[in-house]
């Protein structure tokens, strides 16, 4: 039973990361999303990350969902293969100049890009901005409605609100925070732009701005992972826990990315850290996949194959089928090479057959 | 014998209170369309007239505490001064502005605001600014048709108005129609009051802008100093002799709460539990302070210096000569 669970778990979370799809975009429910990363599931459903890069509707009530279900970018022509994209953030100038009735931003976004809400007009209610891990410069320039900054107290250090966020003081709207959060605003920030409100007003505003989407603030929070820290992919084991290799999936160069934030609109690709107790080595791979019998890792251009207990498979040829594909369906050997080899084999076979026929004809 | 009899007769006939401005508790002063009722009265001297020694009983003036009891409904702008005729304005009576419509109202720092005082009040400027108030009544802001700005500059004393608001104020039972605004720095003063959850706050400049808007950017209103309690109230501490003289009395006038009757304002404006109080010290016996409720400077032609002082306290009437000697009856 336990093995079955482990296998199911592996099937669910085993996916190879690919950077090929990064940068592609699609539209759904009036929002344009750009794919930041995507990983393919063995089970058919893909996991990925997107950020909002624009809005196509006007005078509407727009909700940014925490997760977008859309046909996988690996096979957009085949709409039956769906992918589950987690919304990472809001890209630069995503809502610049837009006029909406309301905008619901999910809890726990990672970033809001430069000028994301520049000249945005919310005609019905206020713009509610939940805690976001990093807020870039001039986000609120020219916003034509009041802005309620939620949960300033829940920001982790360093605080995402900086002077840059409120850089252009002449074109800023009125900002409101809760009374309790007034001392949590960074001292470097010009407090003149801030008003505070009591909790009853805050609840009333949220009710108006979110309609019936979130009756309670708690529902709003639980709609998303509560942690604002690094979004962690699951750690899983190829076999039994403690005996088999441990695979940790995470962002590549994540710390550097967090530090300089230069690549804010494009999250770094994934990487897989494999602790192999069989070889007693720790390797980092770009790609990982398993089929319940063995697992495959890719580093650079080279693929490596292991049994579930971590033993390297050196004779890769033995794993390939007649068409040169590995058990995961990857064309390991070039088709031409396989074709030539097959043709050579066929020629050799035909030649041998002819030789045999001749021998038989002459009585050898 | 005849001379003694004549002296007694003169004493009774010619002794009278000579005061420049005679007012008693209960009197009503009307000024600029606003009526004030005197709640407590005590005697002070004018600093300019009596810098050191009071020369006679005519140098005393009535001072004390007064309450606003009526405001003309036709006044467009209402300015309630911190003091009127040497009387400090300490409160507003019940339903003072009930159903009124004014453009702007300037209020001083007050000890109490009566029940339903601002109920159904309409403000042309759109906001009512209330400074430090020690105690609010019930239903003070019911259906106030304006924003309400609490301009708190200090923690209010004894009454702790905002704490009492939790129990019986209109801010619990019904809310003003407009927004309730407060200075961010003063939020901690109302932390445990329900208004905390229902108010907006702003820091320095933004808060000042709210007040400016409430007074339509009129500097005359804005320059009204909140802490101005009136320079004309007079000196409450004075000597019967030259200050450096070794004999004489030191008299300090004022008012005290009447203990045992509850808060000084009673059930707000129906009762007022304060009365005048004079503390008297003989310069030769500085450690001994005697308190009296009433003080009467008496002109007496039989006295060498022309006048003497009389006090009324628990033990009855007591008179002293100016150099502090007890006068026999």
Brief summary:
Chain A is of the alpha/beta class.
Description of the molecule:
The complex is a heterodimer of chains A (364) and B (329). With 364 residues, chain A is an alpha/beta fold. Chain A is 18% helix and 28% strand. Chain A has 3 domains: 13-222, no CATH class; 239-330, no CATH class; 334-364. Chain A has helices spanning 2-13, 199-210, 217-222, 254-260, 335-361; strands at 17-18, 25-28, 31-39, 46-55, 61-63, 67-71, 82-90, 99-100, 102-104, 111-112, 121-122, 127-129, 134-135, 147-149, 175-178, 194-197, 236-237, 246-251, 270-276, 281-285, 287-290, 294-299, 302-307. The longest helix of chain A has 27 residues, at 335-361. The radius of gyration of chain A is 27 Å and the shape is elongated. By secondary structure, chain B is mostly beta strands. Chain B has 5 helices and 20 strands. Chain B has helices spanning 2-14, 161-168, 170-173, 204-214, 219-222, and strands at 28-31, 34-45, 60-71, 77-79, 83-84, 87-92, 101-102, 104-106, 112-113, 122-130, 145-150, 180-183, 199-202, 237-239, 249-257, 274-282, 285-292, 294-299, 307-313, 316-320. In chain B, strand 18 and strand 19 form a beta hairpin. At the A-B interface, strand 16 and helix 2 of A face strand 13 and helix 4 of B.
């Amino acid at each position: 039973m336990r093995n079955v669970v482990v296998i199911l778990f592996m099937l669910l979370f085993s996916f190879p990361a690919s950077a090929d799809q990064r940068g592609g975009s699609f539209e759904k429910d009036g929002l344009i999303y750009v794919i930041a990363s995507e990983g393919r599931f063995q089970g058919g459903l893909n996991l990925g990350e997107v950020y909002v890069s624009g809005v196509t509707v006007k005078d509407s009530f727009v909700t940014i969902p925490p997760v977008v279900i859309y046909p996988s970018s690996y096979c957009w022509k085949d709409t039956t293969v769906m992918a589950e994209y987690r919304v990472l953030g809001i890209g630069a100038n995503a809502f610049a100049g837009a006029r909406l009735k309301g905008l619901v931003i999910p809890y726990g976004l990672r970033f809001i890009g430069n000028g994301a809400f520049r000249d945005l007009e919310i005609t019905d209610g206020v713009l509610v901005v939940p805690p976001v891990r990093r807020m870039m410069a001039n986000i609120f320039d020219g916003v034509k409605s009041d802005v309620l900054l939620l949960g300033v107290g829940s920001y982790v250090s360093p605080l995402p609100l900086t002077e840059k966020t409120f850089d252009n003081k002449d074109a800023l709207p009125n900002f409101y925070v809760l009374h309790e959060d007034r001392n949590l605003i960074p001292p470097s920030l010009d407090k003149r732009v801030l008003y505070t409100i009591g909790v009853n007003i805050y609840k009333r505003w949220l009710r108006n701005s979110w309609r019936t989407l979130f009756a309670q603030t708690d529902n709003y929070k639980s709609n998303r992972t509560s942690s604002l820290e690094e979004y962690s992919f699951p750690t899983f084991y190829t076999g039994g826990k403690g005996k088999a290799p441990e695979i940790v999936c995470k962002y590549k160069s994540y710390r550097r990315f967090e530090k300089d934030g230069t690549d804010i609109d494009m999250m770094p690709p994934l990487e897989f850290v494999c602790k192999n107790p069989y070889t007693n080595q720790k390797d980092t791979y770009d790609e990982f996949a398993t089929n319940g019998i063995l697992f495959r890792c890719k580093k650079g251009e080279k693929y490596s194959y292991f049994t579930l207990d971590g033993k390297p498979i050196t004779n890769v040829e033995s794993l390939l089928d007649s068409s040169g594909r590995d058990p995961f369906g990857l064309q390991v050997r070039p088709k031409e090479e396989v074709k030539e080899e097959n043709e050579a084999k066929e020629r050799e076979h035909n030649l041998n057959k002819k030789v045999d026929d001749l021998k038989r004809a002459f009585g050898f | 014998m005849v001379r003694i009899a004549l002296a007694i007769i003169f004493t009774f006939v010619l002794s009278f209170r000579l005061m420049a401005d005679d007012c008693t508790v209960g009197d009503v002063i009307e000024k600029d369309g606003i009526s004030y009722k005197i709640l407590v009265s005590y005697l002070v001297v004018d600093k300019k007239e009596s810098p050191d020694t009071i020369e006679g009983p005519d140098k005393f003036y009535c001072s004390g505490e007064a309450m606003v009891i009526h405001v003309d409904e036709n006044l467009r702008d209402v300015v309630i001064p911190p003091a009127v005729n040497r009387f400090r304005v300490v409160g507003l009576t019940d339903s003072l502005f009930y159903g009124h419509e004014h453009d702007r109202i300037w209020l001083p720092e007050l000890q109490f605001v009566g029940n339903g005082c601002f109920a159904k009040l309409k403000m042309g400027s759109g906001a009512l600014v209330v400074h430090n108030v020690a105690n609010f009544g019930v239903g003070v802001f019911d259906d106030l048709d304006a924003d309400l700005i609490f301009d708190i500059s200090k923690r209010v004393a004894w009454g702790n108005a905002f704490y009492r608001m939790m129990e019986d104020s209109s801010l619990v039972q019904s809310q003003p129609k407009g927004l309730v605004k407060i200075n961010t720095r003063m939020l901690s003063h109302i932390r445990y009051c329900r208004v905390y959850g229902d108010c907006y706050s702003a820091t320095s400049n933004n808060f000042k802008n709210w007040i400016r808007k409430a007074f339509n950017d009129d500097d005359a209103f804005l320059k009204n100093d909140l802490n101005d309690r009136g320079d004309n109230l007079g000196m409450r501490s004075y000597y019967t002799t030259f200050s450096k003289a070794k004999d004489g009395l030191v008299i300090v006038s004022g008012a005290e709460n009447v203990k045992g009757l509850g808060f000084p304002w009673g059930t707000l404006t129906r009762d007022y539990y304060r009365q005048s109080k004079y503390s008297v010290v003989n310069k030769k016996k500085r450690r001994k302070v005697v308190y009296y409720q009433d003080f009467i400077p008496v002109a007496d032609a039989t006295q060498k210096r022309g006048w003497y002082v009389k006090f009324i306290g628990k033990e009855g009437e007591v008179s002293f000569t100016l150099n502090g000697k007890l006068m026999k009856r």
